[in-house]
Specification:
heterotrimer, A alpha/beta, B alpha/beta, C alpha/beta, A: alpha/beta, Rossmann fold, Alpha-Beta Plaits, nine-stranded mixed β-sheet, two-stranded antiparallel ribbon, B: alpha/beta, 2 domains, ten-stranded mixed β-sheet, 11 helices, 12 strands, 25% strand
């Protein structure tokens, strides 16, 4: 791992605060010096602005899932009794025989039914949980992913995306990695920030934004990562903005700026452009945040 | 599953956070009045920021069964740690260490232990709190910090769905396990989205989930304006009913920022939510749509969905 | 005694990795012979969970009596203390620098995990 590569992760706590719009602008402002990583694998959106051209794609597998071989099942129901996740049911077939079936969405992959099936009728294949892609964009190389519906372990997919992004940065000698992080404060977020060089929290001056900000900043502090905060749509509630900025400073974060409420943000999105690529009033605000974070 | 019209369970979900899911759930509950509002977003419960009420009784502690090793019986054979798919047990120097935070509570280790040295003990994962707010009963789950096991807590919240009377569920954002745990066995799903490319992309992901679960659903477009019809076009082409459009009104954003309910701060929006409720009820009474949710097929008796295509199967 | 350093490189001049569970490898230095061996840990870098536990098992199997790293999560710490392996934290840039800090007695022993679990 080269110490020279700087990784900046953009997170938000609560979703929908403008995290991806800021990330897309940063990708443009980095002017070809960065690898882009979309770690919001549950609801990836960065590709909608950066319109990547896919170069390679790989399956993402994690854990296992139980699959009952119908022809070997005697319908004894042992698995149904043992499953703690209500993932197996016995179904009466038209031929009058009872057979057990696993609901793949409810199965957590513990393997209890596999081990204790008296007829050894349960297979335990690896579970396909999504895919990850390497692409080229107008702003540079991009690594992104898609988690399958109802799949678990997005933390591991996030780790995979970051690892690939770092590999690409090393290979091409690029000094920056700009990462669109997942929302929330759970496992995937932890996976996206651990070992990063700085995090930017994009928040809104709302009660929910304030509520989640503290938890996110605690996380950054735990991992000893310098944290920056910017308030999006700050002017919808200037008092709350002040209060959030005070909280941020108290918690050791740097206030990197304010972004005004601007409908042009949505117009940019519709035009598949980053905010800084169009003549939007808030574009200057985003540039100021970029400068505050010391990228220029 | 509820039969007839004595109870209706509506879930409000979205492909990603910040689209107005909680706003729709909470305002819908407020205009409906006599209803139970369940916050299933146990990692970030936010409903209480908008509808607060008096706590009703003590919080209910929710636990998961995790292993406890009797060291006097354990011979360090590692059968348990070899079995555990979640790495919740490890053996070092013939000693077993339990990492309860990794445990899914499957009970497999206790079964495989040849010495009978493992028993299962409850470990707290969070609480379920009930509050009374006017006619609305708010039930929220709150996962303990550092706990990653949301589905058991979601199931505990859902155990508070009343036997009679309507329930509104605020689902977690996204399309992962806790979302599926929330949506299962509901009667109708309201998907909230925005008329933007991001909104459309995330809506499509959410539609995949509800279709896979075989649930009837409709869409509410939040922050609607006239400049983008991609979401409406998609819904029309995919035969998805648009239930309501909440205009892009800066006053709504401002009220939200202060933690005020839209129908309280801006009463002119009351009829919109009243109409939304009426429309959902009407849709559910439509035998064609209701048939998707509660076909008389025995495979729905358990409330669990069948694999795709199963509805056409010979057993139906 | 044998000391395990978390690192991404192959020799004493390699950078010290601040992560324990998700370090690419461990450089295990023997203070008696002044020689070192490398223990691969890459299978853990993208492990879904339990990286710290597996890394601790790797370090214990290599016979290390001490670990020098940046952070150590609660699970790894419990594993290491069970195996009587002492944990020291260092902010040194390289393994060599961390080794001289260790030999000078400049490193303090961790008595509890110093980061949150999961992904440390």
């Amino acid at each position: 791992m080269s110490a020279a590569i700087q990784e900046c992760v953009i997170i938000s706590g609560k979703g929908g605060t403008g995290k991806t719009s800021v990330t897309a602008s940063f990708a443009v402002l980095a002017a070809g010096r960065a690898v882009l990583a979309d770690c919001d694998v549950d609801a990836a959106d960065l590709h909608l602005v950066l319109t990547p051209k896919m170069i390679t794609k790989a399956d993402f597998k994690s854990g296992n899932e139980a699959v009952i071989r119908s022809e070997a099942c005697t319908g004894c129901g042992t698995c149904v009794e043992l499953c703690r996740f209500e993932a197996i049911r016995c179904v009466r077939r038209p031929d009058g025989k009872t057979r057990c079936e696993v609901d793949p969405i409810a199965c957590e992959g513990c393997g209890v039914c596999v081990r204790f099936c008296p007829g050894k009728a349960v297979d335990f294949p690896e579970r396909l949980c999504g895919e990850w892609m390497f692409s080229e964009t107008r702003c540079g190389p991009m690594v992104h992913a898609r988690l399958s519906t109802a799949a678990e372990n997005s933390g591991k997919l996030v780790a995979t995306v970051r690892q690939e992004a770092r590999r690409v940065a090393e290979e091409r000698g690029l000094p920056l990695i700009i990462t669109d992080g997942p929302p929330g404060i759970g496992c995937p977020v932890i996976a996206s920030v651990s070992g990063a060089d700085r995090v930017l929290v994009v928040t809104e001056p709302t009660v929910s934004g304030e509520h989640d900000l503290e938890r996110v900043l605690k996380l950054a502090r735990h991992f000893v990562i310098p944290a920056f905060v910017c308030i999006n749509k700050w002017d919808i509630n200037p008092e709350m903005t002040e209060r959030i900025e005070q909280t941020a400073r108290k918690m050791g974060a740097t206030v990197a700026g304010r972004i005004r409420y601007d409908r042009a943000v949505t117009s940019a999105q519709r035009a598949e452009q980053a905010v800084v690529e169009i003549d939007a009033p808030s574009a200057e605000d985003v540039r100021a945040v970029w400068r505050q974070m010391g990228f220029e | 599953m509820g039969t007839g019209r004595n109870r209706m369970i509506i879930a409000v979900a979205s492909g990603k956070g910040g689209t107005g899911k909680t706003t729709v759930a909470a305002n819908l509950a407020r205009v409906r009045g006599d209803v139970t509002l369940l916050d299933c977003d146990v990692e970030e419960p936010n409903v209480h920021l908008f509808i607060s009420g008096e706590p009703q009784g003590e919080p209910e502690v929710v636990s998961l069964l995790v292993p406890e090793v009797d060291e006097s019986r354990c011979d360090g054979c590692a059968a348990c740690s070899n079995f555990c798919a979640f790495k919740a047990l490890a053996v070092l120097d013939k000693r077993v260490l339990v990492f309860a935070e990794m445990c899914h509570g499957c009970g497999g280790c206790a079964r495989v232990c040849p010495q009978g040295a493992i028993r299962e003990v409850p470990k707290r994962v969070g609480v379920v709190e009930t509050m009374g707010a006017g006619g609305v009963t708010v039930v929220q789950g709150r996962l303990d910090v550092g706990v990653a096991m949301a589905p058991p807590l979601v199931r505990a919240v859902k155990a508070h769905i009343p036997k009679t009377g309507d329930a509104i569920l605020d689902a977690p954002p996204g399309t992962s396990c806790p979302v599926v745990a929330t949506l299962r066995e509901t009667d109708f799903v309201v998907l909230v989205t925005e008329p933007t490319p991001f909104g459309l992309n995330d809506l499509k992901l959410a539609v995949e989930v509800v279709r896979e679960l075989g649930l009837p659903f409709g869409v509410v477009v939040n922050r609607a304006d006239s400049s983008d019809d991609r979401v409406t076009t998609y819904c029309r082409e995919a035969s998805i009913p648009i239930l309501a459009e909440i205009p892009d009104d800066r006053r709504v954003a401002e009220a939200y920022s202060r933690g005020e309910l839209m129908v309280d701060a801006l009463p002119e929006y009351r009829p919109l939510f009243e109409q939304l409720y009426t429309d959902i009820v009407r849709l559910l009474q439509n035998p064609l749509i209701a048939g998707v949710a509660r076909a008389s097929c025995p495979c729905f008796m358990g409330g669990t969905p069948m694999p795709r295509g199963a509805l056409q199967g010979p057993h139906c | 005694m044998k000391i395990a350093f978390s690192t991404s490189g192959n020799d004493l001049n390699a950078p010290l990795d601040t992560r324990f569970g998700r370090a690419a490898k461990f450089l295990v230095y023997d203070t008696e012979t002044q020689a070192f061996t490398l223990v691969d840990n890459t299978q853990n870098m993208s492990a879904a969970q339990g990286a710290g536990i597996q890394a601790a098992q790797n370090v214990a199997a290599a016979g290390a009596q001490a670990v020098v790293s940046g952070h150590c999560g609660p699970k790894a710490f419990r594993m290491l203390s069970t195996a009587n392996i002492k944990v020291y934290t260092s902010n040194a840039a390289t393994v060599a620098e961390a080794l001289s800090q260790f030999q000078a007695g400049a490193l303090t022993e961790l008595t509890a995990a110093n980061v949150d679990g999961h992904w440390a």
